[in-house]
User: Fold this.
Amino acid sequence: MAPQEASWPAILQEIQRNIRSQQFDTWFRNIEVADLSPQALTLRVPNNFYHEWMKRHYVDTIQRAVLAVTGSRPIVEFVVRETPAPVDAAPGAVVPPRPASNLARAEPQRYFPSDWTARLNKQYVFSNFVAGTSNAVAHAAARAIAENPGQAYNPFFLHGGVGLGKTHLIQAITYHLLEHRPDLDLLYLSCENFMNHFISAVQNNEREKFRSIYRNKDVLLIDDIHFLCKGAREVTQEEFFHTFNALYNSGKQIVLSSDSPPQELTKLEERLVSRFKWGLVARIDPPSYEMRLAILKKKAQLRGRVLPDEVLHFIAENVDTSVRDLEGAVIKVVAFSSLTNRPVDMELTREALRDTVERLAATITMDEIIKWVTTHFQIKLCDLQSKRRSQSIAQPRQIAMYLARALTRHSLEEIGGYFGGRDHTTVMHGCERVRKLMECDPSFAGTIEHVTSQLRNKR
Assistant:
């Protein structure tokens, strides 16, 4: 893998952390790196509109991201692709490259003049989604809808925190339908784009045109529907209400995603909130330790890499916030390895993720960990430091060692010193015992996840 190929995903990840998700999906999903050196970064964009917009609004953002990842601040240039992406959708709507089975399908109606279009993330398909206890219902429902739209669960309301996989699932449904149901007229877009389309229709006296398009779809998939709470006027909410009714009464499939469940969308009209609950409401929770390991392996595999188990465990222990952050950690480690021409091992991983780990561990102390362990297991500090090896003492001691290893910057030797002067091999053995228990005992893993979250939330 060439250096620019390895570092560009890491740069994209850094950009994504610093701009709104809608901005990233609109402007950065559809560009490619043509050349990257310490002196210059050249990006391919779909058309002249993209060229002018990126040059005017995002050069500084890109340069800061390159500096954070590579340490250099190159000149940013844009070149237009020889063959622009097809324009067959409303501004911001996503129209992916159609699979072979879809090529014969007539292009959908072009509903507003547009000089640009964004694409689906090609990685967001069902085969790349890691299913587990935290997303089992959402995943199963998404598969059922993809196989039988309008019949399985309608509407389907998917909610969860940022970066947990909502967009992945909703786009996976879209991809599956495009490939297997080319007869359907479907549309995937963000709520912000829906609102912008409606405002444009009002300004241009094209309400009827807007309605004829949105109310006649076979499948309508809208990401981030909670944006209706933030910027939509009553007239926009009313328009969506009637769009929803028209589709639902015609047996058409509606799929919505949100950061919050329907009942927490307090600024929405009650009649809309009520309709969101008519079908299936499914939540995605943060991934468990086992799921984080599986996600890390999948993300590394998608980049053609196999990371050592100890590296995977280290990342899973230290990054427990979202799937997006897990992917970012993998990208950063792989990019760091390529840029420094070094193998991926624990030393390199700690260097690459130093800022992440130090930020999480900055205010977590050994005293806090020991206080939790002694309180939870109703034992004394002198028991943890003693030579006793009974199960009632040994396991709490190993848990304390594991938490210290995962949440603080102490070395193995320093951790051993807190527990009666034990050597580093004893600490390693204790940490490994806890890892294995977490992998085979969901209840035990849940306990460790809970205390980890408690300790980190004290920051």
